Amino acid sequence: MQADIHLPASKSISNRVLILNALSYSPYEIENLSDSDDTRVLARVFDSNDTRFDVGAAGTSMRFLTAFLAKTLGEWTITGSERMKQRPIGILVDALNSLGGKVEYLEKTGYPPLHIYGSALTGGEIELDGSVSSQYISALMMIAPYMQHGLRIRLAGRVVSRPYIRMTAGLMQTFGVTATCTDDVIDIRPQTYRPVPFTVESDWSAASYWYEMLAFEGRGQVFLHGLQADSLQGDSQVATLFQRLGIATEYLPGGVRITPSGIPAVTHLQYDFTDQPDLAQTLVVTCCLMGISFHFSGLNSLKIKETDRIAALIRELRKLGYVLHEPADGALAWDGTRCPADEHPSIATYDDHRMALSLAPVVLLRPLTIEHPEVVSKSYPNFWRDVEGIIGGRK
Question: What is the pLDDT of residue 394?
Fold first, then answer.
């Protein structure tokens, strides 16, 4: 395999910078903005004069916009897809209402759609359960400088996706605002954002699927444009994880070059994905197809993503002959147990881009069909074009 891949821009950075750009009243256009569905949704909102927004399946957009609109003078309605209406948002709504906001549920309590009466927020101190989704925390952090008394967040329990909180704080700093973060407290005083020119880094989550493909192919090299060694993205940890699976990463000007480095260093992989939940599907599929047993923990947030990703992985990998189980809440394991594989497996994607993206590389090893392949547009719109350029008609 020889490939030169221009990865999509980071969705996580793009979505945060769109909010920060708006909060700073920036005249600058963001460079290399993600072309993903989630980012398009946010961009359309900021280009719109409407008061009612449908974010579809974009969970990040739902959470970030709920907080943004709560501090923006006006009366707003925000809704989404049927799946979005099943994804909880009560933690964020309760927090906003306790900080002086007024957010009401239009249908089921605790879930979208929402009616938001935007106004100045008083702020103060709150306690949040850090074990559900860091996006609630990031949403509050970004609007905190404009609260009358600022915001102090005490984090209770085990905090998931902590690198995303650090990413939010780092991007806020770029826009001139300081957030003081310790293990269990985030303190943000009243401040003012300043507009700055900004170019978005490429997406390390998207890079993970090329690591997976190269691991399956076992030869060649792939150059991935736009990745940085000192990334704000927690998913840059993919380079370290795949080093254990036999893929080396070389940081070069303009990106990284990945190459097979030999036989994987492990026959069993144990890892806590609390800080990188979006990498879990890639590693689960890679380990199964490479015959590497695993025990992965820290997957609690996967149950409230576009689908219940733990249940979906168990169901779809059984079609390929792998018997996975959930040994504890938020864990997923494979001890090497196999079962008869479907002769012509058809992989359901559950309206979840990462189910399609993580299972697509399997085509390098055996034929299969990916149902509703268009779901990849949520984070990697050009994925199939890039794959077609490498493996032609084998997809």
Answer: 44
- Give the orientation angle of helix 11-23 with respect to helix 134-143, to 10 degrees: 20
CA 99 to the chain's CA centroid: 27
pLDDT, position 220: 94
Q: What's the chain's average pLDDT?
A: 94
Q: What is the pLDDT of residue 36?
A: 83
pLDDT attached to residue 306:
73
Which pLDDT does position 160 carry in this prediction? 74
CB-based contact 202:255 (threshold 8 Å): yes
CA-nearest of 86, 92, 93 to 107 is: 86
> How much is the pTM?
0.83
Which active-site residues does the annotation give?
278
User: Which stretches in the chain have pLDDT values below 50?
Assistant: 393-395
Write out the two tokens for 143.
Answer: 């609007």
